[in-house]
């Protein structure tokens, strides 16, 4: 997979640090949660899809860490930093052992294919 990102050489030196600091606290908090927890769901209030993903995981009895950042009306600029960091355009963002698996639809697909329980089992064996 290749994702096009503007080359550093094409960013004026005067703004490089500003770009690097753009909501770095939020990205750092998510990175820390992903490093500390086998399953992380990053969502936002008022969005039904993070709620649906959490409900699915609750029904499966699968523990997870949940991080919520604003709603449709707040913190959207901060959430953009997460979208730029991951390349994933929507919420939730679901991480299994540090790997972004996508959102609710992708979680449902992994469950339907029987891959999700295997991913979690592999995690338990590795710990």
What does this protein structure show overall?
The protein is α+β, with helices and mostly antiparallel strands and 127 residues long. It has a single domain (10-126), classed as Glutaredoxin, CATH 3.40.30. Helices cover 53% and strands 13% of the residues. The protein has six helices and four strands. The chain has a four-stranded mixed sheet with strand order 2-1-3-4, with helices on both faces. Strand 1, helix 3 (48-60) and strand 2 form a beta-alpha-beta unit. The longest helix is centred in the N-terminal third of the chain and has 13 residues, at 24-36. The two termini are 28 Å apart. The mean pLDDT is 93.
What percent of residues adopt helix (DSSP H or I)?
40-55%
Number of domains: 1
Determine the number of helices (DSSP H or I, runs of at least 4 residues): 6
Q: Regarding CATH, which class? A: Alpha Beta
Largest sheet: 4 strands, mixed
Question: Outline, from the CA principal axes?
Answer: globular
């Amino acid at each position: 997979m290749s994702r096009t990102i503007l080359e550093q050489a094409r960013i004026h030196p005067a703004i490089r640090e500003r770009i690097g600091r753009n909501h770095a606290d939020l990205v750092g908090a998510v990175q820390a949660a992903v490093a500390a927890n086998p399953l992380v769901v990053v969502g936002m209030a008022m969005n039904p899809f993070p709620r649906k993903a959490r409900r699915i995981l609750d029904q499966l009895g699968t523990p997870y860490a949940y991080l919520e950042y604003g709603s449709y009306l707040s913190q959207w600029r901060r959430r953009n930093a997460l979208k730029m960091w991951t390349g994933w355009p929507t919420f939730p963002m679901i991480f299994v052992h540090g790997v972004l698996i996508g959102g609710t639809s992708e979680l449902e697909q992994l469950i339907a294919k029987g891959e999700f329980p295997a991913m979690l089992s592999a995690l338990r064996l590795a710990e």
